[in-house]
Amino acid sequence: MNNAPAETAAETSALEDDHFHDECGVFGIWGNDDASALTALGLHALQHRGQEACGIVAYDGAVFSAHRGMGLVSDNFSSRSIIDTLPGSIAIGHNRYATCGAATLRNIQPIFGDLSFGGFGVAHNGNLTNAYKLREQLVSGGAIFQSTSDTEVIVHLVARSHKKTVNERIVEALPTIEGGYALVAVAEGKLIGVRDPFGVRPLCLGRLGDAYVLASETCAFDIIGASYIRDSEPGEMVTIDALGITTQQVFKEAQSRFCIFEYVYFARPDSHLENRSVYEARKRIGAELAVEAPCPTADLVVPVPDSGVPSAIGYASAAGLPFELGIIRNHYVGRTFIEPTDQIRHLGVKLKHNANADVIRGKSIVLVDDSIVRGTTSRKIVEMLRAAGAREIHMRISCPPTKHPCFYGIDTPTSDELLANRMGVDEIKDYIGVDSLAYVSLDGLYRALNKPGRDGQSPQFCDACLSGDDRCPITDFEGREDRTRRVSAMASGDD
Amino acid sequence: MNNAPAETAAETSALEDDHFHDECGVFGIWGNDDASALTALGLHALQHRGQEACGIVAYDGAVFSAHRGMGLVSDNFSSRSIIDTLPGSIAIGHNRYATCGAATLRNIQPIFGDLSFGGFGVAHNGNLTNAYKLREQLVSGGAIFQSTSDTEVIVHLVARSHKKTVNERIVEALPTIEGGYALVAVAEGKLIGVRDPFGVRPLCLGRLGDAYVLASETCAFDIIGASYIRDSEPGEMVTIDALGITTQQVFKEAQSRFCIFEYVYFARPDSHLENRSVYEARKRIGAELAVEAPCPTADLVVPVPDSGVPSAIGYASAAGLPFELGIIRNHYVGRTFIEPTDQIRHLGVKLKHNANADVIRGKSIVLVDDSIVRGTTSRKIVEMLRAAGAREIHMRISCPPTKHPCFYGIDTPTSDELLANRMGVDEIKDYIGVDSLAYVSLDGLYRALNKPGRDGQSPQFCDACLSGDDRCPITDFEGREDRTRRVSAMASGDD
Amino acid sequence: MNNAPAETAAETSALEDDHFHDECGVFGIWGNDDASALTALGLHALQHRGQEACGIVAYDGAVFSAHRGMGLVSDNFSSRSIIDTLPGSIAIGHNRYATCGAATLRNIQPIFGDLSFGGFGVAHNGNLTNAYKLREQLVSGGAIFQSTSDTEVIVHLVARSHKKTVNERIVEALPTIEGGYALVAVAEGKLIGVRDPFGVRPLCLGRLGDAYVLASETCAFDIIGASYIRDSEPGEMVTIDALGITTQQVFKEAQSRFCIFEYVYFARPDSHLENRSVYEARKRIGAELAVEAPCPTADLVVPVPDSGVPSAIGYASAAGLPFELGIIRNHYVGRTFIEPTDQIRHLGVKLKHNANADVIRGKSIVLVDDSIVRGTTSRKIVEMLRAAGAREIHMRISCPPTKHPCFYGIDTPTSDELLANRMGVDEIKDYIGVDSLAYVSLDGLYRALNKPGRDGQSPQFCDACLSGDDRCPITDFEGREDRTRRVSAMASGDD
Amino acid sequence: MNNAPAETAAETSALEDDHFHDECGVFGIWGNDDASALTALGLHALQHRGQEACGIVAYDGAVFSAHRGMGLVSDNFSSRSIIDTLPGSIAIGHNRYATCGAATLRNIQPIFGDLSFGGFGVAHNGNLTNAYKLREQLVSGGAIFQSTSDTEVIVHLVARSHKKTVNERIVEALPTIEGGYALVAVAEGKLIGVRDPFGVRPLCLGRLGDAYVLASETCAFDIIGASYIRDSEPGEMVTIDALGITTQQVFKEAQSRFCIFEYVYFARPDSHLENRSVYEARKRIGAELAVEAPCPTADLVVPVPDSGVPSAIGYASAAGLPFELGIIRNHYVGRTFIEPTDQIRHLGVKLKHNANADVIRGKSIVLVDDSIVRGTTSRKIVEMLRAAGAREIHMRISCPPTKHPCFYGIDTPTSDELLANRMGVDEIKDYIGVDSLAYVSLDGLYRALNKPGRDGQSPQFCDACLSGDDRCPITDFEGREDRTRRVSAMASGDD
After folding, report:
1. Do residue B223 and residue C347 have CB atoms under 8 angstroms apart?
2. Which residues of B touch A113 (CB under 8 A)?
3. pLDDT tier, C13 (very low <50, low <70, confident <90, very high otherwise)
4. Could you read off the pLDDT of C327-336 as tens digits, one per residue?
5. pLDDT, tens digit, for every residue of D84-101?
6. Pairing of strands A364-369, A300-303
7. Which domains does chain D have, with CATH numbers?
8. Where are the alpha helices (DSSP H) in A293-388?
9. C contacts of B334 (beta carbons < 8 Å)
């Protein structure tokens, strides 16, 4: 059942793909008879936000149906016979990346409960920073948790509210929750979407004919031909039912501090966030980097595929240098592969990348990537380019150093593992083995996002992973050294 | 996941195997380092009590572990690698036959909850007759049910109790529950067993070295070499922990009315129940039947294999007739098989049985079976024996007519489907196509169990399926025509 | 694919089930539109002859189709969607027990070849005793073997014949083959059956309406309602096509020496062989044993289930003693199960059998079984009965000591492993741990089969495993100590 | 087993990915103790040449081992436990794309035979154009074919040769074979590679320490750190054994006519072929196209990802236009996905591609792709770009019109399906819906490959798919309208 335990998958992923990882994608639709199929397509477009597991809950006016599974959307929802078990015109779905909660079937979202007012399903992207404390309180009151997911805390809070309607219950429940999140929920006849009061995680509203759609990113609208209406506001609860769209501000204080890393790496380049094109934003970061850290003697600009491509195009264009595919990516990389013996263990990174030797032999290259987390991959790529004959390698990173873990829904290593937390830029340069290394500045990053620069008093984004400036409460983690929380006495064989 | 939905399996089973079906087997052990392996062996010995699914929960002094799966014990627990995920010296296990609750992974017992006092796992054999009402009350109070199993009601009642210890909570919870049940539970350091106040379902206590064992039948002791101590008493809670065995009567009024059908069909012939050998009891029923319904002109006695064998031996011995295997059973019968086309659909019963033509050709035979439920199988067997040349067929049934459904944990068809509810003995004789038909009398059955006969005022057994005399409350079913209860708004794709 | 390699399965089987094992069952049908479904049913009835793998080849007048798989017939052919891939009115099928040829998909019969005259499929039960030598000759001539099965030798001989018709080619090919076999073959429009010139392995001819059927045993006729016509003769080739049945004697010298062990153990008791009822034959062996080795002080007769039942009934009846089920078999025994730790390893045999303690406690019992091969199971059963309180155990075996390996299609251990090859009866008695031990004599066995006794000059049966009298040539094994032959340089991962 | 039958996969592929498809990749290694693991890695690097199935045969000095499976290399060879079943220092491997031979396990290469001189395994990339005729001759001579693959013809020819050594037999066998192929073979102690006399399909020779390597492309050397030695010559047989490398010209007349489409589309851009960088060649084709078909009013150049990227970079650079990712590809596209209902069936192409609307809105774009086969994908992409707001779309194709099917190992549609066979450029322009359309000329393509232009008398490449000029014999297909050949009377359920 659980062939890819969370830890191992994360580890493999860390070795092969040295990035922060988004923790989830969510999707919801109201008012289309093929709601589950459209949800599967939407989740497919959001697959980059989570590949470990996925699930859909649908409602057909009488009955709620669910299907969940480990693996990709196309592994679990590609057959019509599965979609047919999920009838109805309202559906929500979730892509999961391994974060809190073990990698078991029980933990796959959406979470569903049969509550006193009827069925209630929830999927969320993000992380609750007081889930552990709330869970303890709920268990003391007789609540029985079936999963170790913090999403289940929300369902129990809604179940225990004495308010009458599901919306009133949500309004009562949410202010007790801390953290960064965007959630979609289904109840009898309703699709509901809520963002945390800082709007850390994204949630967009769209339309497809008479139907309404909620999704983490607009690329999920494009795949089904839906049109973008607007982003949901921080702290806003959007309710879609037979009466149309109703909106309500759930929190007394709400203020936008959107996750800046969505622009740097997470979001798909063809998505819009806050009315910005992600692709154009990345090109501008690359251009900003060309200004801040020029490299006039270089022969060409080479991206680390695929995440470094837009900023490399931006850099090359601003610097007047040729843009070349100096590294070729194998499109058939699966999650795991044999690392056969010590003799050939060092081959690791080549499973995914190969140097395009003719392009780089004897050349001085600007190598553009979006971030350096542990540095393992960068080091291997540089080694590979040297072996293929690169004369000089000048690395440019389209993000300031990632020095701090994130508590708001991003999978980051512990502080100890973050290279920039342990080393200065010069040490990293030596560790990676490049001739020069530069990161875009935090102000430069803000400028690329059309802000005059970061305002220390009131930053316009959540940049805690870069600045260490945690503006949202992190109750469960105060005084802790890592992000791990023990949430259950239950260890499970496979279910 | 759920390849054999409950309804279909029951239907198939009804066609191929026209019997009442026991609904579960339970097993628990305290104090052996290989607790899970011994539990798997115990469940294997109890496999006849439920073949749809099975599960084990173990406790190793710190952590609870669980594994559950659809199918047989040998399908799910035959590899050491699975057993090794279930460490500890305390374990409970469960074999499930499809009854209430859909055939999904979520419904497989043991049910586990992470409660405020620690982990708590429960497995039970039986049926709660007010589970629906209790569930409604609990959901109104904010409880979230993950399964549709009535076992989960028990866990929620224990979770909501304000008492301090798990035993006090069970004592508070159980009197609100109605029905016939035997349950085993595991909490931190404890193995607990409870029977309902009428002791309808069986539960035995045994010992293996320093370890203690609880099981539905003694054959589960034999397989691991444990010795039998005694049956648990009606209404008794047995607690085994570091202090040894503690016993407590949970109910104000408790009175033995053990399920008489365990003797007729359910229990394995090599088990002991209430100090009676099941095999010897069945032989005595056969002998009683030979006295009540003799067949002096017959040539031989033939059992319907395998359930009719002991009573056929008893009948043959009492009647002085030869005992012969006139029907041979195929040992490789799986759950399902092609019923290829209309042309050969009538072959059904032969997948399992074949006439031993040389033995029966031209003979007058006494055909002994334990019960006739729908009559479908009996009719096909008789037709097969006629085709093989039997001259006369005198059918003898080692149980009175089964006229009433059971509400205490046995899977019975609706009243309409029960042949004896619709027809008199003569009509059944004609329907089945035999030359004569006789059932043992209810008094005869009591005599075979060493009672002078049934006392209408105070029957010593629960014989409601035979007499219609429901002595235990059946709140959920009052005024209902069938045993079906809708317990959830949730329909599930596969999880 | 190959989770149960041949060696391991044989070993497990040897431990749990100490018997000689038949090596295959074959089935063929001509002239029914649902030929594959009927073949699946026929194979299901023959499942006792081989449980490792099974396959069907069908012909629809234009195209041959095949499906094969590891496991039981019901595992591989229970869905209509599989049967529908095997259209046509002619089909042959095969059940395989692990013998020569590794347990891979490639080795599963029927073997099929696309020959110059058209498609040709063969399934056979038995063993060729010069297959290795023939294979070497064929490979030298450029033949390419895809399997390690000796059946493929037959296909190559037919392919290389220069005769025109498939029948002429078979007639040319067969005299070069030595061994004991019964084969069924399908070619365009034809079903063909052949037995070796000694008729060692069984093959019966039946009819179902306008269709004709060939099968290893008559129980395969019963399951589909076909009627028995006659046994195929030693050395006879039966051809069924649009012209009806044609018969031809392929060998110059043919003489019946049918495998006596089919009567002792292999065949199902409800089958007929050579016009004898197997069940009645076994009862007569039991009666013969009661005369040769009486046990007047015993209280009851107990069979080792299920193979010892008919002879125990025969013994009990002849001796005037009660027949009782003193050992109960668990019907849910799979192939393997955890043998968890040394602590509980000795539980082995109880997975399958349990003593019925009330029946045997304090009693002197006659324990009847059909054979003792290695003695491992017998020893454990006796130990179990002693532990359950048996006072005296007198073992009676319905077959003479099995001292010699078989080369004609039966899976037997090496001589060293055969207990009767190493020990005399008294030693075996002590090893098994019984109070007395007796085997039926070889003459007694012949008498039970209605012969005056074994005639040393011209035995009416092949009894080489009992007498050591190999009357058929065994070219490949001359001077060898065991039955193992290396037939290929190819070891296969899984295909 | 066979979840993706050849026809369906081809169809899906045609709809989603409108390209000619390469038919296989081959790999072989001699002299490394981890030969199978290195072969798996090499096949992984060659995955783009065939995704339907893969296999490896290894030789350890005594025994040959094989493993094959449907699906990707990482699906079948990612676990050490599989690799461990393939011991030895010599191994060959194969990636298969669906071409001739049904998609069954039997047809997966390498094909292995246990011949009179020992084991012999072969894997080949290409297509034999007289395989059908040869097969008929071989079957007449008694050969039994197990697969429908034309590779098996080679094995039979080698088996039937009367020469002594495997090399002599190959030399005898190959001249009877027609077609384009590159094959690798393993025999006892030897690795052998052969190319057809025209060198249509690629085969390169490399070195890794003391080991030698053969592969379809050099990217398979890079992944294991092997160095490139040279391309194998047309008609050359390379033998690697304990004596080192031996080379022999097998054919009297050999002349290079390498497949020009390897440069256009098949090969990975980081591979070298005939000492040319594929990436640089594609850039030069793009530049040639910018000269032949300029588009001075365009705003930007957009590639169809990923195959159009290098030529788009070349075009943009030559034309002085910006290069932009105007189409974003979803990296998680599997083989199949629900096409849920008619309502959303038109979404097809978006599963793989999405328009990057901000980049193209209101712009005049040059859209660069490598080929138009059926035109279905191009049409959908253009429609998608129009919907996203593109003002003008000028399509440029880096290959002349593909008017003819290929008989030398490339999977092409029938002539009828080839758009350029039915329509002129103007019609195609209208069908695709672009504002202008131009293909590079055949002479332009030759120039980009550093030739002065195509010489009609003696073309330096095989360009039959573009020119219709079939210079190699195509016996099986003379007078036929399509590439389909019936090679077997056997249709197979799943094996």
Report:
1. yes
2. 144-146
3. very low
4. 999 888 654 5
5. 999 999 999 999 886 544
6. parallel
7. 6-257 (3.60.20.10), 277-451 (3.40.50.2020)
8. 309-319, 342-345, 357-360, 376-387
9. 72, 74-75, 78
